[in-house]
Structure formats: C-alpha cells, structure tokens
Fold this sequence. Notes:
Layout: H1 4-13, E1 19-22, E2 32-35, H2 41-45, H3 50-59, E3 65-69, H4 75-84, E4 89-93, H5 97-109, E5 115-118, E6 121-122, E7 129-136, E8 139-140, E9 150-156, H6 158-165, E10 174-177, H7 183-188, H8 191-197, E11 200-205, H9 211-220, E12 227-229, E13 234-235, E14 242-246
Parallel strand pairs: 3-4, 3-10, 4-5, 6-9, 10-11
Antiparallel strand pairs: 1-2, 7-8, 7-9, 11-14, 12-13, 12-14
Amino acid sequence: MPSPRVKEIIRKALPRRVRPYSVKHGLLKGAQIITSWHDYPGAILGRTESQLLNWFFQNVSFGETWLDVGAHYGYTAVALSRLVGPFGRVFAFEPVLSTAAHLERTRELNGLNQLTILPFALGGVPKMYTLTLPKVRGMADSTISLAGVTERILTLSLDVLWPLLSSSYSVIHGIKIDVQGMEFEVLQGMSQVLRCFAPKLVVEFHRGVDRDGILRYLHGIGYSIPCRALNGEISHALVDDNSYVFESEAVKCEF
C-alpha cells in the first residue's frame, strides 16, 4: 500500500478533467459516475469503500429511505439507490455546488429517480447559515488549512429541513455521514430525527473530531456504545478515516 505522500504525488499527475466514467470493478461495476482521475480514482476503478458497500448490501433493504450526508461525486449514493430500488428514497447532501451538479448528472446517467440531490450541508443549529471551508478534490474539508481554494457553503439542520423534504412518509431507515471533520455538528442538528426514527448510523471519523463528545451525545439519545466497525467487531477506538456503525434501541415515534 503506497504511503499518503506517494499517493499525493501520483494524484497530482492524474488527469483533472471531470467527465463520465464507467466503474471498472467491484459491486458497482458498470455504473456511470461523473468525476476525474485526479479527484476520485478509487471510484473509477471500483476499489474504494469496499467495506462500506458490503455493509450496505447487508443492511439496506428494498423500499427504504436513506440519507447520504457528504455524498461527494455520488459513489455511495449510487450504491444506496440501487439497494433501495425504485420504490425507496435516497437523499444525497453535497454542499460543493459544482460537485452537486456532477452528482445530478450521475443520477440522470444511471436512471436513479429515487435519488434526490440537495446542494447544501447539514449543520448543528436550527437556522440557515453559511460557512467558508477549504475545497479539495471536489469536497469541502474542515480538517485542512484555509490557505488554498475555498467554498462558501449553505448549511441547515436536518431537524428543520426534514419535515419539508419528507412529504407524507417521514421515516428514515439509515444515515451515512462522511463530512470531513463536521461530524459532531451534523449529528447535533438531527437529534429529533435520531430520537424519533432511530435510524442505523454509519459515521466516518476524521482528524480533530471530538470522539468522546459524539459517543456521549449518541448514548444520550439511545444509541448503543461501544459501536461496531464495518466488519461487525465491537470497537472501542475510533480511528481516523474509518467508518463505524451505531444502532439504537429507542422506541420509534411520529415526527
């Protein structure tokens, strides 16, 4: 496995043009995705997020409603959309406007009418506000310096937004969160949704995030601690750039 430094050197030499590609291998082989070799080579090759996709295939059911928070170019949103099928729903949140536009084109190319693209971020307070964050490889990333390219993103909490989006059927079965350091804020802004629907959560943790605070918060609204890694093993240490599963035993209610 190449070191992060070697990976970055290789990435800089890869083509930056964003265009349609057919996924070459893996569980999404043959799916279309709009991206570039520079931004997301693992998606084009179909060799990224293999553990997460395997977990999806075991835990996502036909007809369900799932949220993809931090959808990027849509690799995981496409997987979720295929699994919930035409009678399910996937809501993909991607705050970088150019990336959200590419994701909309990916939705069209794959004929995924069950997928809705939402070009803003989820945040922690019940009002609309904006953030300026670094932008790298088509995504907003709060874990890196503001010295480079930045993006001004629109932000709103899920608790405020969900009644406007959900129509007459408001149940959420699962939420995937990969938000480059904004994990706690996103979770805080969906406390009502989490308490009410007790959806499965799969959260990727990033550098600098308050793990203890998140664990206390989730435990306080009914989620089991410790959580589990994607392979099913109980996990006590939440490692950077890895995803973990949280499940709730709370009684579900009407939103």
